[in-house]
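Justification of computing resources. Each target in the renewal requires a structure prediction run like the one illustrated here; the chain below, 350 residues long, is used simply to show the kind of job we budget for.
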Amino acid sequence: MPEPRTIRLILFADTHLGFDYPVKPRIERRRRGEDFFANHERVLAHARHVDADLVVHGGDLFFRSKVPQKIVDLVYESLFEFSKSGIDLFIVPGNHERSRLPESLLFSLPNVHIFDRPRTVAVEKGGARLGLSGFAFERKEIGSRFSRLVEETGWRGVEADVRLLCLHQAVEGARVGPVNFTFRRGPDVISRRDLPPEFLALLCGHIHRQQILRDRSEPARTPPAIYPGSIERTSFAEKDEAKGFFDIAIEPSRGGGWTLTPEFVPLPARPMVDLVIDERVTAGGLPSFLAEKIARFPADAVVRVKSAGRLDGAIAATMTAGFLRKVFPPTMNIQMSAALFGRSERRRKR
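Resulting structure tokens:
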């Protein structure tokens, strides 16, 4: 075997393909589904451009478990074309797919590997033998079952110079949302102390914010958990988050062993903005009020319409889907806040 060289690994996750992608739209308007497909293709194009050794998708390839056949065909045609590059592709079925991907002849290709069950796959890259272990998303009590599932991958029986664990789970310490909710130890969270030190890193999906959870002790006793995050903003909880993927260099170290250097590569993400309607706005003044606000927004913004207080009933009657399509440019997406017109307040009173 030749002298080991730097190994290039691309990690992305949570593509949610099919989200807001109607197969038979009843009206012509911008949909966000194309944004997700476009970024998915950008990641694959990057992997081909840099001649990556392997690509890992950390789960939630699709946006739900049952998707129209057209969406399945679009996704698998894309992956089939990518497979012609010869780059090994690993996929972890996620929670949105209910831990199972739609069947495909794609999975019979020698360089496409699906963690549809606990397993370990060995590949030789850059003069080294890599062992990638993983299993599909586990919905119940992963905290107590994690160590057993790792053992079921059979990693101990596979010879490897570098070991990587591919998951679609929440690891203790991961943070999400605008208030930095942090996952603590619990039945649905993997404890950091249970991460096997024989693995160089965990390659993870499920958490939509990109982050790397590291052991700060010297020497480090647990592998880092690397989350690339989602490739596009899926909700307003992510409106201030950068979106992208990791280009990871795995290199032999002088003293023996291997080091891992992740570089985050940003992807285009649609700006998300709130448009707040003041309770003093009248139905007659609504068009000009909205026009003034919209003029300040990026042309491709995803706009959430909210209210500062309880709005006049005449405004509720005015703000129909047709009205909004006339006021907003076709380059924007509009969604209505759940609390608009006091709906959540009325629910609390019932």
